Amino acid sequence: METSAALHPVEGPNSAADWWQGGVFYQVYPRSFADSNRDGIGDLHGVLGRLDYLQQLGVDALWLSPFYPSPQHDTGYDVSDYFGVNPEYGTIEDFVQVVDAAHDRGLRILIDLVPNHSSSEHPLFQAALASGVGSPERDRYFFRYGGDNPPNNWGSQFGGPAWSQVQPLSGKEEDRGWWYLHLFDASQPDLNWDNPDVRHLFDEVLRFWLDLGADGFRVDVAHGLVKKPGLPDDQIGLNRLEIAPEELGRLYDQAPYFDQDDVHNIYRRWRRILDDYGPDRIMIGEVGVQDPNRKALYIRPGEMNQAFSFRVMHIGWDAPRLREALQTANGLELKFGGINTWVLSNHDVVRHATRLCYPRGSIFEGGLGPSDPRPDREMGLRRGLAYTVFLLGVPGSCYLYNGEELGLPEVLEIPDQARTDPTWERTGHRSYGRDGARVPLPWTADPVADWGPNPWLPIPDGWGELSAERQEGDPNSVLNQYRHFLQVRRQYGLGQGEWEVLDVDPDLVVVRAGHYLSVLNLGIGERKLPFTGQVILATEPPRQEDGHYWLAPNSAAWVQL
Ligand code: GLC
Question: TM spans, by residue (predicted)?
Answer without folding.
Answer: none
